Automatic annotation (TrEMBL):
Catalyzes the NAD(+)-dependent oxidation of L-threonine to 2-amino-3-ketobutyrate, mediating L-threonine catabolism. GO terms for molecular function: L-threonine 3-dehydrogenase activity. One of its GO terms (biological process) is L-threonine catabolic process. The gene is LOC112238422. Coiled coil: none annotated. Pathway: Amino-acid degradation; L-threonine degradation via oxydo-reductase pathway; glycine from L-threonine: step 1/2. CDD domains: TDH_SDR_e (cd05272). This is L-threonine 3-dehydrogenase, mitochondrial.
Length: 381
C-alpha cells in the first residue's frame, strides 16, 4: 500500500515561518497508511529538506474573473498578484481553463489545467514541486442552479481530484467555502461555525461536501486542510460570476457608468459581505497560521452585513443622482432568503487573530475610487 508521510509539528512550524532563519534541516517524518485512490506509481515520499521550501510553492486554481479582465486597476487587487507579492512571482503558479490576458503571463507562470483532469493536475504538482494548493475553481450559486450537472462535476468531482492530489503529495490545501453552505434551517442572525447545514442549492451542497471531505482527510490521512467560509466578495474588477451576491458588485459599475441600477434582490435582503483585500489577507493569514492555533479546520469570516437599500444609500452619499429600481430574480431571491444575514466569525478572531479592515463606508469609497478612475482612463483612451 502506498504510504504518505506527514511532517512532525516542529517541521510544520518551520514551514509555517519561512522567514524564521531556520537552517536547512532534514526532517523526521511519521508514516500513515494512505489509499484514498489507487495510484499507478509509488506515492511514497522522501524526507523533506527545508532549504527547498523556504517559500511555499503555490498552485492557485484562479479566483475571481477580474484576474482575467484587462482593467488597469486589476494589478492592485488581483488574487494572484497578492500572493505573488507575498511569496515571489515564480513561486505562485496560476491555472484555469480560460486563456488569461497578457499581464497574467508577464507577472509569473500560468498553466492550463482542467481540475477534472486528475493526471494533468498531478503532473503540474510534481513537475513544479508544489507545496501549497489554493483551490478556487467552482461554479457559484445561481449559475450552479442553471447547470446542476456541470456544478456537480466541477464542485464535487473536481474537489475529489484536488483532495487526493493534496493528500498524496503532502500539500497544504486551502478550499474556500461560503455563506451558501448554510440553508433555511440554519440559524441566520447570526450564523455560528457549527450548526445545522442543509443548503438547498447544488453549490451549497457541494461546499458542505468540501468542508466535510477536507476535514475527514485531515483526520484520516493527516491532510493539512484549511477552509474559510467567505461572505459575498466585492471587488472592483469582477465580472458577474453567477453568484447571488453579484448585485453588490454590479451596483458600483452601473452607478458610475449609467447613474442607474436595477437590483435583482429585494431592498431589505441582508447578507454578509467583504471587500476583496480583506478576503485575500484572511486567506493568507489562515494559510500561514501555526497549526496549533487552529481549533477547527473550517471557519466563518466576516466584515459587514448590509441590504441593497443600505448599500444604495451609502453609494448615493457619493453619487446623489443614482437611481435604484428593483426587479426581483426569484431564483436568486429564494437563495438569498435561505442564507445567513449575519455571520459569527468569533472563532476566527479568537484563534488566529482575524480582523477586517473595510466596513461599508470604506468599501464604497474604495470601489468608487477604483471604478471611477478606470472609467476616466477608458474615456481618455
Ligand atoms: N465570489 C464570491 O463572492 C465568493 C466566492 N467563493 C468561492 O471562491 C471561489 C472562486 O469564486 P469566484 O472567483 O467568484 O468564481 P468565478 O466564477 O468568478 O471563477 C471560477 C473560476 O473557475 C474556473 N473553472 C470552472 N470550471 C473549471 C474547470 N473544470 N477547471 C478549472 N477551472 C475551472 C472558471 O474558469 C473561473 O475562472 C469559489 O470556490 C467560490 O465558491 C466563496 C464565497 C463568496
Ligand atoms: C456568496 C457566494 O458564495 C457567491 N458570491 C454566490 O453568491 O454564489
Amino acid at each position: 500500500m502506498p504510504v504518505i508521510r506527514t511532517l512532525s509539528k516542529v517541521a510544520k512550524q518551520a514551514l509555517l515561518n519561512p522567514g524564521c532563519g531556520c537552517q536547512p534541516i532534514t526532517v523526521a517524518v511519521r508514516t500513515i497508511s494512505f489509499s484514498p485512490r489507487q495510484v499507478t506509481s509509488d506515492a511514497s515520499f522522501h524526507s523533506v529538506s527545508f532549504s527547498e521550501t523556504d517559500h511555499p510553492k503555490v498552485l492557485i486554481t484562479v479566483f475571481r474573473r477580474e484576474c482575467f479582465s484587462s482593467s488597469s486597476s486589476c494589478v492592485f487587487k488581483c488574487n494572484f498578484l497578492f500572493h505573488r507579492k507575498r511569496f515571489g512571482n515564480k513561486n505562485v503558479i496560476l491555472s484555469d481553463i480560460r486563456k488569461p490576458p497578457s499581464h497574467v503571463f508577464y507577472s509569473g507562470p500560468f498553466i492550463y489545467s482542467d481540475i477534472l483532469d486528475y493526471k494533468n493536475l498531478r503532473e503540474i504538482v510534481v513537475n513544479n514541486r508544489i507545496t501549497w494548493l489554493v483551490h478556487y475553481s467552482a461554479l457559484l450559486s445561481a449559475v450552479g442552479e442553471a447547470n446542476v450537472s456541470l456544478a456537480r462535476d466541477v464542485n464535487i468531482t473536481g474537489l475529489h481530484n484536488i483532495l487526493d492530489i493534496a493528500a498524496e503529495h503532502g500539500l497544504r490545501l486551502f478550499v474556500p467555502s461560503t455563506i451558501g453552505a448554510f440553508g433555511p434551517t440554519s440559524p441566520r442572525n447570526p450564523t455560528p461555525d457549527l450548526c445545522v447545514q442543509r443548503p438547498r442549492t447544488i453549490y451549497g451542497v457541494s461546499k458542505v461536501h468540501a468542508e466535510l471531505m477536507g476535514e475527514y482527510y485531515h483526520h484520516r490521512y493527516g491532510l493539512d486542510f484549511r477552509c474559510l467560509r467567505y461572505p459575498g466578495i466585492i471587488s472592483a474588477d469582477s465580472q458577474p460570476g453567477g453568484g447571488t451576491t453579484d448585485y453588490a458588485v454590479a451596483i458600483f459599475h452601473d452607478a458610475v457608468k449609467t447613474g442607474k441600477f436595477e437590483c435583482n434582490l429585494k431592498p431589505d435582503t441582508r447578507l454578509p459581505m467583504m471587500y476583496i483585500e480583506d478576503c485575500l489577507r484572511a486567506t493568507v493569514e489562515m494559510m500561514e497560521a501555526p497549526a496549533d492555533t487552529l481549533s477547527m479546520r473550517t471557519y466563518n469570516i466576516n466584515a459587514m452585513s448590509f441590504t441593497p437599500e443600505e448599500l444604495a444609500q451609502e453609494v448615493q452619499k457619493q453619487l446623489p443622482d443614482l437611481e435604484v429600481t428593483y426587479d426581483i430574480d426569484q431564483v436568486r431571491q429564494a437563495i438569498a432568503d435561505s442564507w445567513p444575514m449575519n455571520f459569527d466569525d468569533s472563532n476566527a478572531r479568537n484563534d488566529w487573530g482575524w480582523k477586517h479592515d473595510y466596513d461599508l463606508p470604506e468599501l464604497v469609497q474604495t470601489m468608487l475610487n477604483y471604478i471611477g478612475s478606470d472609467s476616466r482612463i477608458a474615456q481618455t483612451n
